[in-house]
Amino acid sequence: MKKIAVISCNAPREIKYSVLAKGYTLVEVPENPQTYKAVASHPDINMFWDGKVLYMTEFCYEGISGEFQKRGIRCKSCGVIGEKYPENVGFNGAVVGRHVIHNFKYTDPEVLAGIKNKDGKILINVKQGYSKCSICIVDDNSVITSDKGIARELLAHKIDGLLISEGGVELEGMNYGFIGGATGSCDDEIFFCGDITEHPDYLNIKEFIESRGKKIDYVENVPLTDVGTVFFINC
């Protein structure tokens, strides 16, 4: 089995080392000049992974698709993104089990068509375009988010959610980042990009994750940082 971790080229080196220590090969997303610097290299801004197909901005497809294709991952080149919200959120949907969560008004057309063609997928529309940034996926029916609107919609669809306070996550150039962008789901672990123990809701987060039979892994001595999600892909 090939183990690939897709990560921002600007992620702190301590986070990259921690991912490498798990036995994953890193594929680093370069800065996309089409959007602003704070999120330009974020995987969840530049690509959407549905478990079988990796939809990518044209910029990423031209730059790094070969790294995936040589490992047998099917890639699809889609459109461009804009500089600011909401023009830069076309790929920022979150896949939670059979559900796909996004503001579908802004979803890239080819991504949306691909989702609709997948049997059994349930689309949940939310106001927040930065959906994946805002959602830490714990398992196929459990998430953590600081977005009250997302939490309400997921509850209506019987998806378990832990609502946490805003903040506690760093994002260079911004007031704060989001919990989803500071995490990645790796087998039976939820990996945090920095020291989650410093988050004000750490104990609730830990209890929620462990109650779902998952473990917590994190990088000590590094502030919890929104790096645009780490996509752990086993293929």
Question: How do the strands and helices of this protein lay out in sequence?
Answer:
Blueprint: E1 3-8, H1 13-21, E2 25-29, H2 43-46, E3 47-49, E4 53-56, H3 58-69, E5 74-77, E6 94-96, E7 99-102, H4 109-116, E8 122-125, H5 131-134, E9 135-139, E10 142-145, H6 148-156, E11 160-163, E12 183-186, E13 189-192, H7 202-211, E14 215-218, E15 231-234
Parallel strand pairs: 1-2, 4-5, 7-8, 10-11, 13-14
Antiparallel strand pairs: 1-15, 3-4, 6-7, 9-10, 12-13
Largest sheet: 3 strands, mixed
Instruction: Output the helix-strand order.
Output: EHEHEEHEEEHEHEEHEEEHEE
Count of all domains:
1
Low-pLDDT runs of 5+ residues are none
The named CATH superfamily: L-arginine/glycine Amidinotransferase, Chain A
Provide a quick synopsis of the model.
This protein is 24% helix and 26% strand. It has helices at 13-21, 43-46, 58-69, 109-116, 131-134, 148-156, 202-211; strands at residues 3-8, 25-29, 47-49, 53-56, 74-77, 94-96, 99-102, 122-125, 135-139, 142-145, 160-163, 183-186, 189-192, 215-218, 231-234.
Throw out a few tags for this protein.
235 residues; L-arginine/glycine Amidinotransferase, Chain A; 3-stranded mixed beta sheet; single chain; globular; 15 strands; alpha/beta; 7 helices
Can you characterise this structure?
With 235 residues, this protein is an alpha/beta fold. The chain has one domain: L-arginine/glycine Amidinotransferase, Chain A (5-stranded Propeller). It has seven helices and 15 strands. The strands form five sheets. The protein has a three-stranded mixed beta sheet, with helices on both faces. A three-stranded mixed beta sheet has the order 3-4-5. It has a three-stranded mixed beta sheet with strand order 6-7-8. A hairpin with a 2-residue loop joins strand 9 and strand 10 (142-145). The longest helix has 12 residues, at 58-69. It is globular and about 40 Å long. The chain starts with a strand and ends with a strand.
